[in-house]
Amino acid sequence: QLQLVESGGGLVQSGGSLGLSCVASGAAVGAYAIGWFRQATGKEREAVSCSSSSGRTKNYGDSVRGRFSISRDNAKNTVYLQMNSLKPEDSAIYYCAAAEHCYGMGMSYFHSWGQGTQVAVSS
Length: 123
Hints:
This protein is mainly β. The protein has strands spanning 3-7, 10-13, 18-25, 33-39, 46-51, 58-60, 68-73, 78-83, 92-99, 117-122. The strands form two sheets. A six-stranded mixed beta sheet has the order 2-10-9-4-5-6, with no helix packed on it. The protein is globular. The mean pLDDT is 97.
């Protein structure tokens, strides 16, 4: 059974960078598209980015396009989210989850959600 664990969150100043990791166990991450999602306090969960299983297709939400970059190393069973030019509005708990395809990052298609990693961006 696929399990995903996020790491790499923390506190960073506005304009700074953070790199998140999503490590898979129980199954090969290369069999899945992996999406990153986030949920800020008091707000709905939103899609951030998604990588197809091969890594050739990458999707981004409008609010992060050009600042965030998704990548994966299937040999290491890990998917990464590099976050640059961070803004206070990027503060949230970041989750990764798996799906057969990215499906336009529709959350209902995703499963095996991790517990999340907290990102806080100070102004």
